Structures are given as C-alpha cells and as structure tokens.
Amino acid sequence: MAAWGERLAGVRGVLLDISGVLYDGGEGGGAAIAGSVEAVARLKRSRLKVRFCTNESQKSRGDLVRLLRRLGFDISEGEVTAPAPATCLILKERGLRPHLLVHDGVRSEFGQIDTSNPNCVVIADAGEDFSYQNMNKAFQVLMELEKPILFSLGKGRYYKETSGLMLDVGPYMKALEYACGIEAEVVGKPSPEFFKSALREMGVDASQAVMIGDDIVGDVGGAQRCGIRALQVRTGKFRPSDEHHPEVKADGYVDNLAEAVDLLLQHADQ
Amino acid sequence: MAAWGERLAGVRGVLLDISGVLYDGGEGGGAAIAGSVEAVARLKRSRLKVRFCTNESQKSRGDLVRLLRRLGFDISEGEVTAPAPATCLILKERGLRPHLLVHDGVRSEFGQIDTSNPNCVVIADAGEDFSYQNMNKAFQVLMELEKPILFSLGKGRYYKETSGLMLDVGPYMKALEYACGIEAEVVGKPSPEFFKSALREMGVDASQAVMIGDDIVGDVGGAQRCGIRALQVRTGKFRPSDEHHPEVKADGYVDNLAEAVDLLLQHADQ
Fold first, then answer.
1. Mean pLDDT, chain B, integer
2. A84-187 maps to which CATH number?
3. Which CATH number is associated with domain B83-187?
C-alpha cells in the first residue's frame, strides 16, 4: 500500500461517522471511545473542515448532540448530516404521508410531517419497537397500497453497543422488502445522495474529502463509490475479517479515531 | 389451457396444504373454509391417496390435528408432513444443538433435542415471539459461531388469518441472513427434500401426484420443480395477481378445495 503521505494528499475535509468512531452507545447513553474526544478537538483546531455524517436514526439530532456534548465532544446540531431530516425533505417534495415505524426518540424530527391516511412507510432503527405487531402493521400498510413505497433510514446490518452487537434497521428493511416483494429507498449511508449532501454542507469536493467510519460497507464502500477516500477504524463494529472483505478495500485501516487524526494532521493538506 | 381431463390424467395421490386451504387461522383457532371439511371427507372416501403437507411451524402436529378435528376435519397426526419433525431428524443426523427461536406451541416437537451450548439457530413462525430481543439473541448466537448455521422452517412471506395478512417466518429468515451475511437452510416447502419426503410417506411418484395450495411460490412453484402438478386455490392468501405471476403458472386455478376435489373425482385416475 502507498505511504500515508500519498494516500492522504490533498485532503481538505473530513467526514466523521459517530457511532463506533466517537462513542459506543449503551446503558446510560454509552461511552466515548478512548482518545476520540481529544481527536475531534484537535481536528477542529486544524485547518481541515469537519462534518459528522451519521446513520443514527433512534435519536433526534438534538438528543444525539446533547449526549455527545455530555461525553465531552465539541459538536453542534448544524454540523451533523443525519437521515431523518433528509427523509423529511423527500417526503415534503413528493407529497408523501408516512406510516412511521421509528423509535420514539426520533419521532420529533417528523413533527411537521402529515402522517394521516399514509401512502408510504418509513422505517428507522426502532430497537425494541421492532415488535412483531409493529412490523406486521407496517407490512399491512404497504400491502394495502397500489404501489408500496418503503423508505429505510440507512441499511446497516448491526451496530455495537457497550453490551454487544445489536441488529440495525437493515435486517428489518430486508424483511419488509421480502414480505412485500419490493425494494426500499435508502436514505442515509451508503446512498450516494446522502454523501453528496454531506459534502455540499461541508463545502468540499469528493476528491478532497476523507470518510472515517467503522462500517466497511456503509461508510467505506459507500464513500468510495462517490469518489471519497475512506479509512476504517478498528473500533465499534469493526471485525478483523473486514480487512479481507471480498468487495471493499479501505484506503487505510487505523486503530481508532486518534490514530486517524494523527495521520491526517501529519499528511493532509494543511 | 388443456382440458381438466388431460391436466389431471394419471393422478393417484393428493398433497394438501392446510392453512388457507382447509382453514384460516385466527381468533379462537380460526375457521374452516366453506366446503373444505366435506371435500377432505370425499377425497378420503375415494381411491386417491391423501397426505397433508404443511409449513405450519407455530403449532406441534398434535395441536394442529386436534384443532382441525375440532373444526370437523378427518385427519390424524400420521397423515401430516410438517417441518419441525423434519428438522429434528436433520439436527440429530448432523449432531447439531439448536438455539430455538420458535413459538411456544411448537417447542414440544424439539423435546428430545439437546439445546445446550448451541451451535446453530432454528427459526420458525414465532409470531409475537419475533420480538427485537429474541431476534437479537438469535443474531448474537449466529455471530459467535465460526460457521453460522441457520435453519428456517419454511420461508413463506405471509399468511392469512381471519383478521388479515400476517408476516410469516420468511421475512425474519431474510433479516437474519442479511444481518449475518449467510444463507439459511430451508426445511419445508418449497424445499425439494420436503416434497420428496411427503411423496415417500404417501407412496406415490411425483408424476402421479398433485399439490393443492394457496401459495403460488411455496406450494405451486415448489411442487412443480419436483415434477408434481399443482393447483392454486383462490382462498387463504391467494391474490388475483397470483394468476399472472411472472415465474410460476399453476396447472390450474380453482375457487376452493371443494372445486378441486370435484374436478379430481371426475378426472383423476380412479
């Protein structure tokens, strides 16, 4: 593999995944990953532009930012690209009224959306709310529509909490796709539209950006398909087999965000 | 389409799906489909051999047969081919110890199976027991195995109860397949092994048998791939679009089991 100086040449902006990179969720809100609070602070003191690009869909952006600030992170709502607000824009543009299968924590993001007489379904990481009854209700709504439309906020397979691996929204999206014989529209990583909106909001071209994430497919593969370089951290849901993934090869693997920031501050365009 | 006489020539044995053909499940056990009790009785008085071939995986065979007898059907346990007993045979043959994600009603079928220190997962139509917590536990067991093995008792998309369409085991199988990056082994229709064991138990060759079911893919498509003719009934989960299915064309469509039996008694090999 090329030297880091070559791999990081010309980087001007950094997209940071949140869960598994900044912190691991869990009991009592979760815990910061060692070194990540300082790493974000150092990055923000540099000339590099920084934006947080998350598939978090259990919490509103406000709640997520409050949690991260409590853990010590320097982060504000305006710096976060998240799928729920992006979905609201799409629903408004297309005049769609969703049946929501989402966690109560993110419901406030849909406060301005008409949910009467639904003509589509939106699912997010609903956690415990992925009960059989709630899944069956979403299924029945879809089956009653002439052209069923399903939005999924991300399609992650699982994430890591302090207590272990947890099923994410992706498996439930697949369940409804199969049950109804349809294909969901994914809002969030790895959707190219989502990365592009994060780049726009950061004001940096794809070729000058790097994504740092723990998900080899959603973060690394998704970013690379948009022409964004991508590093995988060995924290969060990282598994050693990711470094031999059959389809995706990161531009670099680092132990954690702290190491990624060390390398960026040494080698990126300052 | 050819005349019924031609389509049913040489039939000596009839495989009957149960849910959606004999009865629709639901509150208080469900309700017999009009004409089906008499149709089964007429079939059994004829020279045709009859076997029940079901993907029912919420109830033990004993409970299913008791329910059907209460609804008036002439049926006994020994006449039923069902996925739970077939799975037990496979587990014993391969020395596998399952983690069970199944409905309490079918758990007794696995009474003789060692479930300590599991090295595979078995899922069935668990209904309300498809909670997030139970799905996550099955997922975690699979992720801890070096070579995850998942058995699914059928892969139906949904079935019809008196109260409406209900998610079957298939969508949950797809969820775990996606979460773990694996492919499940299906025990039940449309698996060819399952149809073959039903034929063996009935003592009739594939070319002399006809399957009657409400599932265009699981019943009709599955049987046809084994060389068994198949009729779809317009009861249970049947939807008008099934008659224009892109991949599967039944050998005939009938309004219900009563009509199928009328035709068989007129045209099959007596």
1. 96
2. 3.40.50.1000
3. 3.40.50.1000
